[in-house]
Every structure is written in structure tokens, then in C-alpha cells.
């Protein structure tokens, strides 16, 4: 029996490998231009490039943190770039999560081994600026007179510090609210007029919640336990996350997310949670999406990058709306999230040039259109929205336009520019813990104050260590 | 009573086997499902097609990753066998002063959590310029207290007379080690080898830190690359990845199970 | 033979010093590879960690502000570290005894002399061949709040679905279940090997005197198995204290830090928050804990172990 099992397994495995590699080869011939080919050839590309090094091509390494579909798309764009000209070769290399990539970068930053380009998440902005390992892209912009005004202003704002654009925005996303239109109809709500304010959310959630005895079949509203959403909900009310104008006018010394704006959000969560209309689906993006798609929750906040696939997969009609705000405040709009591309200093100037050329290529309407469609991240260059493929896509999913509108209607201010803190990852963690505690019944004020206190401690420590 | 006992045992055997094996069967089934089938919460897929496997292989150079994993695991296995055997030999057959203290120090290394030493180790590897190299993934794991311990326990069972006889016959101690000790302890070598191979194959965090590109990256990292953060994860493809990753180790385990069980048990006995 | 020993004894004192030197030299030669590797990859980093634990580090990870015991004082009074210790202890309590009992039970079953039992042995040991990354991913899906099989089973019998990974109390249990499953293969193999080493004659004589199954289990099997069990307990304890991969994939330490086991907490402090100082202090603390537990275990546990 054991032998039999063994033989079976071995055969299966052998067949699998051969079957799959054959199939892959076959496809490469069929499909001329793009993605799948590139991923299969990652290793080959590298070999090729070493050979071609003799032809004086400049190689520049590009560290990214995109896995899954994002990785496919990014590698396809890099491939397009490499074929579009003869001077530079960009080598894309996956480095794990943003945190892991940054950890590695810390140890090679400032040396010859540093990659020419590294993708870093938005909350790493302050850290990167202070690290001294990077060359602001502004210096290339100035030198060449590159016109950045063609790029989305609200995205540039985030990465502009002291009037310098430090990094090239790349995968950018904002939060939006997704809701189940069918459930709205069923509950007697207007599916074309989704709730806009906290109170409206609360009322709608009550109607949308479906209970079966003790078991809640469908919750009205859910938030992912992820600090980013709290940051956004504070910003849209015009509130700040840290003092000194969100750390933009001077280095932040204290967290202020426990102010009235933050408290309103936590109180809303608490009230809804106690009323049984708030569904907690944890801190995993996939879980909350699955909950929405299986109709376990009727409204939730998601990243604009996840909208298209949710619409595609959901067995019902999905509505997309702006994120809600408190009626005691005005709607200010959203902060940009996602990541940007940084250029290393201390490396060969030719590699920097290669990095710069690649960044420019990335900003082209064509690349951005492809990127926007493949991943759902924003096009940094709004003219990408004029490209045919984007128009077609929007025709198919008109809801996608809402995400762009929300961003373009955002009022520029310190609040919507987003906070700058070097210890942002830790601050986010503290906020997540506070969210989880509130859902377990801790008083909202107490939970927030504790998170702020902890954040203050790490800010203080970081300031001490970096003097 | 006599008749019932085997029946009860069989029933228990079958139930427990189903429970223990269930997660793997489940993963196997999911690896054939499409996104919508998953959302419907099906347990058995509609059809057994290889789409997800194809996608997994298309997305990443998985065959290359598998080879890397295989190579790294084999090298670590051999390295561990050699280094541990040498050390265990000294602890058993060479009566030097302070032997117990040194042995205790060896055993105490089992208590140092690997994560606690990871930051300085990473910097060391970098200074040695071993990032993206097989050395960086293998050499730090050659010395392993568990292996020394396991082999020592087995060497202790070698009759003292053998050593005495070889001393008289004028065998140099290395020759004794090579000609007598190693053949005598084949079981524990196989055991340690399988153990070393499996644990190396399963390494996760360290390869992620010390590899920057696909050259030497092992297959566990591939599993991570199939999952996404902000965008939707394709569970079918991920599970296909899981199956691809576990099949080689399962085969190895089935092959070496008997030896492994014997050898590990000997290590546990004093 | 006798002559040889006599000869050895006689000369031993005379050339004692010389022999000592020879032994030392050859011992060092044999131990050298291990010693070098341990020094470079374990002791040196441990020392470095100890050093870092007295400093604050800047963004490049350079230790530049000496703070004495401050990092230790901080972690010892910090609520999140208390939670982390509590979670770790609970986790050890959930996983070690349960895991060993289950493995023992399976090993006893698989040790019966029945036809086809080899097949079951293969199944039971299979989890040893499944990597941490792979098994955690599979269990992540099993625990999935809406698509996972567990909640679907519960729903199909009309029960209230359980927030496996989302409720602080359940999350630790879920991680523990995953861990127990992962460790079954290894513990099972060792215990089964131990069972097969038990002398058959003991059982035969017990049967003759008419002892029942459970009597035999208590009086023969368990005592004869005690060295094996001792080994399994030691290894399981150390492993439980060092759990990382499952937590990273299943819960990232949440919710409400309920699964923030100490090694994960170290990882997060060091690689997400870049606080090498506090991370190092936590590492040293963990090292001391494991050291103490192991010494205690060897001191008290070993007395009760029955050697053949």
C-alpha cells in the first residue's frame, strides 16, 4: 500500500512538472507580447543581460514588493522598457513584503550593492528621506526640466516634502466604500444613493443586518483592522494623525489621532459593534473581501486596487462610493496610499540615469494604462485614463471611475497630504490593536489614548536615537 | 473482547487517519478549484483540471526554485552529517578534560532561538558577501546541536571493546571513525540526514532575507510570492503551490519513514 | 586483552600529561568545525544581541545611545510584553501536553500488530513532511471565516459560526491547533520508535499474570517509554517557545495581540519597528527563559525517567 502510494505520488509529480513546463512553453509561442512570457523567463532574462553587459548596456536592479498579479504586471512593464531602448536594462527582483524589502535595504543602503530603485510603502516615506541613502528624484526633474505637472497632483502632494519630490509615485491607491446593491434593494434602501455620513452608515447598517436567532447572517458594515483606514477616516474629516501639521512643517513629536476626529470613528465602531451591525473580519484583505462576496457583510471599505476584482467576482451588483465622513465635519477627501519608487545614491551615476529613464517610462500614459488595468492601482498620469484600454475597462466597470473622482475632488491640505512619521509602521500597529480592543469591548477613548501613548513613546525614542 | 479489539482499533485508526490527513486532502481539492467554486464553498472540485498548476508554474520559475531547494537541502544534510559526526565522535571516544562542560555548551545552543541571532547573522552574511549565494543558505546550518546529540547517543551504544581493539590494532582514531563508527551507526545517519533535509527544505524566513533574486531562492519563498497583500489572492493557485512544495518532502518521508523512526527513537534513549 | 589493559593502566600515569595533550589536540580537531560555526553563527550574534539590548539604535541600526537597563525596564513593565509572555505560556500549555498525548495515542494505535498498519503509520507521520509555510497556508484557509470548511460544517449543522482567527480567545487556540497538527508527525515517529524498543518479554509475562491493557500501559509501556517521552517533551517545549512561521501567516500576532508570541514579538520589534534595542532585550529574556526551563526539566524531569 505504501509503495503504491509512493509510486503514485512520484508519477503525479513528474507528470505535473513536465505537463506544466510544456504548457508554458507552448504558450510562449502563441502569445507574442506579454506577461506570462516574462515571468517564465525571469531567470533567462538575467542570464541574457549578463551576456549583453559586454554591449555596454547599463544594468539597474529594481527591488519590488509586488507578488501575485502585481508581480506579473510589473515584470511585463519592465520588459517593455528593456525592449523599448538599447541603453539600459532594468532587472526586477521580488523582495518579500514592504517591511522585508526595507529591512534588506537598510543594510545595503548607501553602498555599491544597493539596488538602483526600491519600491517602498507610503508610510516609509519619512524613514527613507531621513536615511540619507536616497537621491531625491527632484534633482533629476530639475536637471532635465521634466514636467511633473502632467502627473496627478494629489498623488504628488504626498511624496513632496519641503517642496521637493523625493520619490516617484508608483502604485497608488485610496480607500472607497463598496456596498451590495442587491442587499440595499432588499432592505428598502436606495442603491443609487449610498450613505455618506457616519450617522447614515449606522442607520443603513441597521437595516442591512440580517439575523437568524443568535447567528448574524449579514452584517451592515465592516472595516478591515488595518491602520490605513483609520488614517483615511481621520483625514477626510480634516483631522491630523500627528502634531506639527501632520509632521509636515516640522518633525512630529506627538500623536494626535486620539483627538475628536479619531474618537468619532472609534465611537461609531463601538456603537455599531454593540448593536450587532458591525462585522469583524480581521486584518486580512482576502477575508473581508470574501465576507462581502459571500454576503456576510453589506458595506465595507476597500482599497481602490481591489475594486475591480471584487466587482468581477461578486455574484451580485456592487456599488462603489466615497468613504463616509462625520456630519460634524466637512468632507476633505482622501490620502494617497500604496508605494513609490526611490532612487539610491552612492551608486554608479549611469545606474541612476537608468533608474530615472525607467521612472519616466513608467509615467507614460501607456504604461500607466496597463498598470491601472492589470492591478487596479491608480494611473499616476491622468492622461492614461484617455487610453482606449482604460475607456473600455470603465465601460465594463463604470464603478471604477468613482475611485478616480474621489481622488481628484480631494482638497489639498495637511490633513489629506498625509502624516510623516519615521515610526509609522509601529503607529499603525498600535492603531490596529486599539481597533481590535474596541471590538472586544474596551472603551473607545481608553483604547485610542493607549495607542497614542505607545506611539508617543516610540516617536520619542526614535528622536533620541537619531539626534 | 478478543474479536472486538481489532475492530475497534481499525475504526480508531481510520477515523484518526482521516482527521490527520484531512488538511492535505482539502488543499489538494482546492488546488483544482476556480475562484467562484471557492466562493460557493465547495469541497470537491467540479473537475480535476491543471489550470491552477499551470498558472503557478507560469507565474514563477517554480522548477528552478525546486531545484534550488533540493540542492540546498542536500548540501546542508551532508554538511550536518559530517560536522555533527566529528563532534559526536570527540564526545564519545576522546576522553579530554572538560568534555562535559563543552558538551553542555553544545546542548545549550539548542536553546538559542534562531530569530534572536538573525539580525547579526544577516549582517555577517552580508559582510562575507554571501547574499544570493548557496553558501549563505547552507553553511550557517552545518553545525547543529541536535545532530551532535543524536549521533552521540548512538555512538555510546558502540561496544567499548571495539574501540579498545582498534587502539591495539594501531588504528588511527580517524580511521576508526571512518571504518568502524560510521558503518556501525548507519541508521542514525539516515535519520539525521532525513531530519536535516526536511528542516532545510522547510526554511522560510532566512532564505527570504538572504536572497534578493531568483538565482538561489528556494521554493518556500515561491509560496509567499503566490499570495498578495492589497490585491486579491488566487487561492486555487496558492494551494497548487502548496501541493507542489510538499510532494517532494512527502516522497522522501515515505521512503525514509522506517529508518527515521528507528533512528529518532535511538536518539531519544540515553 | 587483559595484558593490554594492564599495560595501559601502568603507563597511564607515566605518560598521562602527554596523552592529555594528544587527546586535547585531537578533540579540538574533531570539534573545530562545530566550534567555528557555533561561534560565528550563534555565540557571536548572541553576544551582539546582548550588547544591542543596552542601546537605542538609529535608522541604520547603529547602536548609538547607551541606555543601560532601560530596554529591560521597559519590556518588563510594558503591557504588550506581559501579554506576549502570557500568550506564549498559554500556547506552550495548549500545544505541548495535547500534542504529546495525541501522538502517544496515535503511536499506541499504530503499534498494534495488524494488517495494513504501515499505511496508517505513513499517514500519521506525513505532517512532518509539510513545511511551516505550507501548513499554515492550508490552515489559514480551513479557518477562513466564510469560505473555510470549519465554519461551513458548523453552518450545515445549524451552529453559530466561530471567529477562529478573529476572536482573541479563539485565535490562540487556532494557532495551537495548527501547531499541534504540524508537530504530530515528528512526535509520532519518535514515540512509535520508542514503543518498538520496549522488550516484548515484559508484555508476555504481564499477560501470563493476567494484566489488562490499561494496566500494562501504566505499568510497563509508560515507564519504559519515559526516556523517549522526556526527549519529546524537551524538543516540543523548545519548539513551542520558538514558534514563528504559523503566527506570521495566520494572525500576525493579532487580534488584540492575543497571538503575539514572544518570537513573533521580537521579529516585529526588530524588522517592522526597527527597535533593535528592545527586540534584543526580548531575545535575551527569551533565551534566559528557555535556559531555565530546560535546566529545571533536566533537574527534576530526569529523575522520574526510567532508563532501561
From TrEMBL, chain A:
SUPFAM superfamilies under this entry? Periplasmic binding protein-like II
Q: Residues annotated as region Disordered?
A: 24-55
Give the compositionally biased regions (Acidic residues): 25-54
| Compartments where found | Cell envelope
Where this protein primarily resides, as one coarse class?
other
Query: Known PROSITE patterns for this protein?
Result: PROKAR_LIPOPROTEIN, SBP_BACTERIAL_1
Q: Where is the signal peptide?
A: 1-24
Q: Looking at the keywords, is Cytoplasm present?
A: no
InterPro entries, sorted: Bact_solute-bd_prot1 (IPR050490), SBP (IPR006059), SBP_1_CS (IPR006061)
Query: What are the record keywords, sorted?
Result: Periplasm, Signal, Transport
The answer to whether keyword ATP-binding applies is no
Instruction: Output the GO biological process annotations, alphabetical, semicolon-separated.
Output: transmembrane transport
* Gene Ontology cellular component list: cell envelope
User: What protein family is recorded?
Assistant: Belongs to the bacterial solute-binding protein 1 family.
**PANTHER family per the UniProt record, alphabetical:** ARABINOSE-BINDING PROTEIN-RELATED, SN-GLYCEROL-3-PHOSPHATE-BINDING PERIPLASMIC PROTEIN UGPB
Listed name of the protein:
Carbohydrate ABC transporter substrate-binding protein, CUT1 family
From TrEMBL, chain B:
Give the CC-aspect GO terms.
Answer: plasma membrane
**Keyword vocabulary terms for this entry:** Cell membrane, Membrane, Transmembrane, Transmembrane helix, Transport
| Cell location | Cell membrane
Q: What processes in GO biological process is this protein linked to?
A: transmembrane transport
Locate the ABC transmembrane type-1 domain: which residues? 66-256
Query: Entry's PROSITE patterns?
Result: ABC_TM1
Q: What is this protein called?
A: Carbohydrate ABC transporter membrane protein 2, CUT1 family
Automatic annotation (TrEMBL), chain C:
Q: What is the organism of origin for this protein?
A: Gracilibacillus kekensis
The UniProt entry's GO biological process terms, in alphabetical order, are: transmembrane transport
Q: ABC transmembrane type-1 domain location, by residue?
A: 85-297
Q: Major location, coarse class?
A: membrane
Does the record carry Transport as a key word?
Answer: yes
> What are the subcellular locations of this protein?
Cell membrane
Q: Transmembrane segments in this chain: where?
A: 27-46, 89-110, 122-142, 170-195, 222-241, 279-298
Protein known as: Carbohydrate ABC transporter membrane protein 1, CUT1 family
| Recorded GO CC terms | plasma membrane
- How is the protein disposed in the membrane? Multi-pass membrane protein
Matches recorded under PANTHER family: ABC TRANSPORTER PERMEASE PROTEIN, INNER MEMBRANE ABC TRANSPORTER PERMEASE PROTEIN YCJO
Its family?
Belongs to the binding-protein-dependent transport system permease family.
- Keywords for this protein: Cell membrane, Membrane, Transmembrane, Transmembrane helix, Transport
Superkingdom of the source species: Bacteria
Amino acid at each position: 500500500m505504501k509503495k503504491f502510494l509512493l509510486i503514485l505520488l512520484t508519477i503525479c509529480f513528474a507528470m505535473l512538472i513536465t505537463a506544466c513546463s510544456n504548457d508554458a512553453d507552448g504558450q510562449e509561442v502563441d502569445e507574442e507580447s506579454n506577461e506570462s512570457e516574462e515571468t517564465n523567463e525571469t531567470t533567462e532574462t538575467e542570464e541574457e543581460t549578463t551576456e549583453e553587459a559586454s554591449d555596454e548596456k547599463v544594468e539597474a536592479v529594481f527591488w519590488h514588493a509586488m507578488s501575485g498579479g502585481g508581480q506579473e504586471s510589473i515584470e511585463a512593464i519592465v520588459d517593455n522598457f528593456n525592449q523599448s531602448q538599447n541603453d539600459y536594462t532594468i532587472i526586477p527582483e521580488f523582495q518579500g513584503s514592504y517591511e522585508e524589502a526595507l529591512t534588506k535595504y537598510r543594510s545595503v543602503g548607501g553602498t555599491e550593492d544597493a539596488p538602483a530603485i526600491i519600491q517602498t510603502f507610503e508610510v516609509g516615506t519619512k524613514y527613507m528621506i531621513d536615511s540619507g541613502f536616497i537621491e531625491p528624484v527632484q534633482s533629476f526633474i530639475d536637471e532635465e526640466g521634466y514636467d511633473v505637472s502632467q502627473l496627478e497632483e494629489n498623488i504628488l502632494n504626498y511624496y513632496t516634502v519641503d517642496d521637493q519630490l523625493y520619490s516617484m509615485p508608483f502604485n497608488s491607491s485610496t480607500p472607497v466604500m463598496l456596498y451590495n446593491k442587491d442587499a440595499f434593494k432588499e432592505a428598502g434602501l436606495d442603491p443609487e444613493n449610498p450613505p455618506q455620513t457616519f450617522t447614515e452608515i449606522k442607520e443603513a447598517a441597521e437595516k442591512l443586518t440580517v439575523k437568524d436567532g443568535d447567528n448574524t447572517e449579514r452584517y451592515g458594515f465592516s472595516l478591515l483592522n488595518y491602520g490605513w483606514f483609520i488614517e483615511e477616516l481621520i483625514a477626510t474629516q480634516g483631522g491630523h494623525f500627528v502634531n506639527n501639521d501632520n509632521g509636515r512643517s516640522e518633525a512630529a513629536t506627538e500623536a494626535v489621532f486620539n483627538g475628536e476626529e479619531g474618537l468619532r470613528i472609534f465611537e461609531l465602531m463601538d456603537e455599531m459593534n454593540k448593536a450587532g451591525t458591525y462585522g469583524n473580519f480581521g486584518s486580512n484583505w482576502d477575508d473581508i473581501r470574501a465576507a462581502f462576496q459571500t454576503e456576510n457583510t453589506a458595506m465595507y471599505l476597500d482599497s481602490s486596487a481591489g475594486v475591480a476584482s471584487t466587482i468581477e467576482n461578486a455574484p451580485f451588483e456592487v456599488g462603489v462610493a466615497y468613504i463616509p465622513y462625520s456630519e460634524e465635519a466637512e468632507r476633505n477627501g482622501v490620502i494617497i496610499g500604496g508605494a513609490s519608487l526611490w532612487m539610491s545614491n552612492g551608486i554608479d551615476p549611469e545606474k541612476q540615469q537608468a533608474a530615472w529613464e525607467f521612472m519616466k517610462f513608467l509615467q507614460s500614459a501607456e504604461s500607466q494604462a496597463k498598470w491601472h488595468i492589470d492591478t487596479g492601482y491608480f494611473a499616476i498620469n491622468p492622461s492614461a485614463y484617455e487610453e482606449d484600454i482604460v475607456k473600455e475597462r470603465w465601460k465594463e466597470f463604470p464603478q471604477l471611475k468613482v475611485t478616480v473622482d474621489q481622488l481628484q475632488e480631494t482638497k489639498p491640505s495637511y490633513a489629506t497630504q498625509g502624516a510623516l512619521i519615521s515610526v509609522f509602521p509601529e503607529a499603525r500597529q498600535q492603531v490596529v490593536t486599539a481597533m481590535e480592543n474596541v471590538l472586544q469591548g474596551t472603551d473607545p477613548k481608553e483604547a485610542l489614548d493607549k495607542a497614542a501613548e505607545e506611539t508617543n513613546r516610540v516617536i520619542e525614542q526614535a528622536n533620541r536615537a537619531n539626534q | 473482547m478478543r474479536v472486538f479489539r481489532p475492530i475497534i482499533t481499525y475504526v480508531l485508526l481510520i477515523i484518526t487517519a482521516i482527521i490527520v490527513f484531512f488538511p492535505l486532502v482539502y488543499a489538494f481539492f482546492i488546488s483544482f478549484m476556480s475562484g467562484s467554486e471557492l466562493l460557493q464553498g465547495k469541497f470537491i472540485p467540479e473537475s480535476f483540471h491543471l489550470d491552477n498548476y499551470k498558472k503557478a508554474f507560469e507565474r514563477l520559475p517554480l522548477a528552478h526554485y525546486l531545484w534550488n531547494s533540493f540542492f540546498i537541502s542536500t548540501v546542508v544534510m551532508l554538511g550536518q552529517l559530517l560536522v555533527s559526526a566529528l563532534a559526536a565522535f570527540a564526545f564519545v571516544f576522546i576522553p579530554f578534560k572538560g568534555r562535559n562542560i563543552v558538551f553542555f555548551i553544545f546542548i545549550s545552543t539548542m536553546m538559542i532561538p534562531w530569530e534572536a541571532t538573525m539580525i547579526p547573522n544577516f549582517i555577517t552574511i552580508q559582510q562575507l558577501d554571501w547574499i544570493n549565494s548557496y553558501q549563505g543558505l547552507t553553511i550557517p546550518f552545518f553545525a547543529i546541536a541536535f545532530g551532535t546529540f543524536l549521533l552521540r547517543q548512538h555512538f555510546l551504544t558502540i561496544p567499548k571493546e571495539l574501540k579498545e581493539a582498534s587502539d591495539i590494532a594501531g588504528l588511527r582514531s580517524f580511521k576508526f571513525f571512518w571504518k568502524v563508527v560510521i558503518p556501525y551507526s548507519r541508521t542514525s545517519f539516515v535519520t539525521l540526514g532525513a531530519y536535516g533535509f526536511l528542516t532545510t527544505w522547510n526554511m522560510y524566513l532566512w532564505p527570504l532575507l538572504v536572497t534578493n533574486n531568483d538565482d538561489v531562492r528556494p521554493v518556500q519563498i515561491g509560496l509567499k510570492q503566490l499570495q498578495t497583500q492589497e490585491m486579491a489572492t488566487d487561492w486555487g493557485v496558492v494551494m497548487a503551490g502548496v501541493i507542489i512544495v510538499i510532494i517532494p518532502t512527502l516522497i522522501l518521508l515515505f521512503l525514509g519513514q522506517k529508518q527515521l523512526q528507528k533512528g529518532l527513537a535511538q536518539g531519544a534513549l540515553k | 586483552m587483559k595484558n593490554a589493559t594492564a599495560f595501559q593502566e601502568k603507563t597511564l600515569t607515566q605518560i598521562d600529561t602527554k596523552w592529555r595533550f594528544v587527546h586535547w589536540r585531537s578533540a579540538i580537531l574533531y570539534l573545530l568545525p562545530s566550534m567555528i560555526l557555533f561561534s560565528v553563527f550563534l555565540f557571536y550574534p548572541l553576544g551582539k544581541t546582548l550588547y544591542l539590548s543596552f542601546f537605542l539604535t538609529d535608522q541604520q541600526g547603529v547602536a548609538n545611545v547607551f541606555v543601560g537597563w532601560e530596554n529591560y525596564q521597559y519590556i518588563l513593565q510594558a503591557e504588550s510584553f506581559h501579554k506576549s509572555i502570557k500568550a506564549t505560556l498559554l500556547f506552550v500549555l495548549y500545544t505541548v501536553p495535547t500534542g504529546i498525548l495525541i501522538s502517544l495515542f496515535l503511536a499506541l494505535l499504530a503499534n498494534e500488530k495488524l494488517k495494513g498498519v504501515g499505511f496508517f503509520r505513513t499517514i500519521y507521520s506525513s505532517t512532518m513532511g509539510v513545511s511551516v509555510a505550507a501548513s499554515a497556508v492550508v490552515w489559514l484557509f480551513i479557518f477562513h471565516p466564510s469560505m473555510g470548511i470549519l465554519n461551513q460544517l458548523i453552518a450545515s449543522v445549524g451552529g453559530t459560526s466561530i471567529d477562529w482567527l478573529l476572536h482573541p480567545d479563539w485565535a490562540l487556540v487556532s494557532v495551537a491547533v495548527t501547531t499541534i497538527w504540524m508537530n504530530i508527525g515528528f512526535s509520532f515517529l519518535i514515540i512509535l520508535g520508542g514503543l518498538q524498543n520496549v522488550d516484548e518479554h515484559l508484555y508476555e509475562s504481564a499477560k501470563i499474570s493476567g494484566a489488562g491493557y490499561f494496566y500494562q500501559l501504566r505499568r510497563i509501556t509508560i515507564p519504559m517509554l519515559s526516556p523517549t517521552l522526556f526527549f519529546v517533551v524537551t524538543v516540543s517545549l523548545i519548539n513551542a517557545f520558538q514558534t514563528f512561521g504559523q503566527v506570521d501567516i495566520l494572525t500576525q500576532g493579532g487580534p488584540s495581540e492575543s497571538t503575539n508570541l514572544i518570537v513573533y514579538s521580537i521579529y516585529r520589534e526588530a524588522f517592522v519597528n526597527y527597535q533593535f534595542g528592545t527586540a534584543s532585550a526580548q531575545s535575551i529574556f527569551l533565551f534566559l527563559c528557555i535556559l531555565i526551563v530546560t535546566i529545571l526539566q533536566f533537574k527534576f524531569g530526569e529523575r522520574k525517567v526510567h532508563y532501561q
